[in-house]
Amino acid sequence: MNRVLALTLAWLVLASGAELQAARKTDPKVAGAVQRALDYLAREQRPQGYWEAQHSQYRVAMTALAGNALLCEGSTTTRGKYSRQIQLAVDYLIERSRKNGLIGYQNDYHYMYGHGFSMLFLSQVFGEEEKEQRREELKYVLTKAVDFCGKAQTKSGGWGYVSAKDGNDFDEGSTCITQVQGLRACRNAGIPVPKEIIDKAVTYIEKCTTKEGGVQYSIRGGGARPPITAAALACMFNSGEYESEYTKRLLAYCKKNLTVTGGSSRSFGHWHYAHYYYAQVMYRLDGNEWDKYIRDLSNTILRRQSADGSWKEGHVGPVYTTAINATILQLENGFLPIYQR
Fold first, then answer.
1. What are the residue boundaries of the structural domains of the chain, listed by start?
2. 183 touches 149 (CB < 8 A)
3. How far apart are CA 66 and CA 321, in angstroms?
4. Could you tell me which InterPro entries the record lists for this protein (predicted)?
5. φ, ψ for residue 311 (rounded to 5)?
6. Rounded to an integer, what distance in angstroms lies between the CA atom of residue 62 and that of residue 231?
7. Displacement of CA 209 from its chain's centroid (Å)
């Protein structure tokens, strides 16, 4: 018993030391920017628990992304500065869970995005939930969500903006990646995910990949897209695929085509989306490469932050961009399993 106690105390000392070291390395400017961003998100949450994009769009997706950014700070549904906001977000998404398993609104013409991001967010909450009744509720919602996701998959193995049934079997890369990462997050949290669903999705992504290593918009074509390629690479890393020849091709393409400086005005669209995923990849690579990347990326992001803590770039709206940037800047916190090394 004494030996167990001694080992426990030693572990606590080491953990505390690691936390102190991490705290010393934190750039005060980054920490301040993150604090302002999260406070902005907290202010923007509606009393019903949701966030929304411009023109009152994408409430489910924005709620999941904003909630995820707050989780990265270390708060949970029961502890921390943003526990109330996270709890309201969870309540909102659980209430949006339909009988068929969809988390969202059937009349939303992009509902698969919200569904995928909700699986990601709620699975991270599930792992930290302390209340037994709420854990069972989350488990039920996530299990149904996985089932819906499998049934929404197209014959080619991808996903579109809506289910295969509602979208005439149309699929495209970015929605597919959202589902894959959400499914992996669920599986990591202990929710059963049939292996064949993810296997079909990985095959789909591989078929969308050009000779140069870029992932196309769709299996039907559309040209290689740096943001979708970065997202695909992040999903491969989530599954532990670091050294395969396919992964190396994707990484080489990203290193050639993704730039840090210049923000959303760069030659490729969806700059923030691209670096949301690419940052996850670079973080797992670790070492000097990550240090330089995150330093340059942070400087670029911080220069564009508004006085109220938000980022007002892009066509989706400030909640989206602020949630994405806040998540990137908090990757080193290491609180969420899906982003950990």
1. 45-196, 208-332
2. yes
3. 10
4. Terpenoid_cyclase/PrenylTrfase
5. -120, 125
6. 18
7. 22
| Polymer length of the chain | 341
What is the average pLDDT score of the chain?
A: 90
Instruction: Identify the CA nearest to 62 among candidates 264, 321, 302.
Output: 321
DSSP state of 221: E
Chain segment 248-290, per-residue pLDDT in tens: 999 999 999 998 875 444 445 589 999 999 999 999 987 889 9
Residue 36's CB is within 10 A of a number of other CB atoms, namely 18
- How far is 251 from 175, CA to CA, in rounded Å? 20
Degrees to nearest 5, angle at CA 142 with 71 and 148: 130
- CA 139 – CA 17 distance, rounded (Å): 35
What single DSSP character describes residue 336? S
Number of other CB atoms surrounding residue 333 within 10 Å: 17
| Lookup: tokens for 127 | 């792992």
Q: Give me 247's structure tokens.
A: 């992964």
Average pLDDT over residues 73-95: 97
Q: Given the structure tokens 């959400």, which residue do they identify?
A: 182
Largest Cα–Cα distance of the chain, in whole Å?
65
Task: Give the pair of three-digit tokens for residue 98.
Answer: 């339909």
Q: Would you state the structure tokens that stand for residue 216, as one six-digit string? A: 């196309």
According to the model, what pLDDT value does residue 302 have? Answer: 97
Residues in Cβ contact with 270 at an 8 Å cutoff, skipping those fewer than 6 apart:
227, 264, 314
The number of angstroms, rounded, from the C-alpha of 232 to the middle of its chain's C-alpha atoms is 12
Q: Which single residue is written with the structure tokens 């890393």?
A: 237
| Assigned token pair, 330 | 């908090």
Helices (H), 83-192: 83-95, 111-128, 132-152, 173-188
How far is 248 from 271, CA to CA, in rounded Å?
22
- The secondary structure of residue 222, as a DSSP letter, is E
More confident residue, 223 or 102: 102
Q: Return phi, psi of residue 57, to 5°.
A: -95, 165
| 191 within 8 A of 123, measured Cβ to Cβ | yes
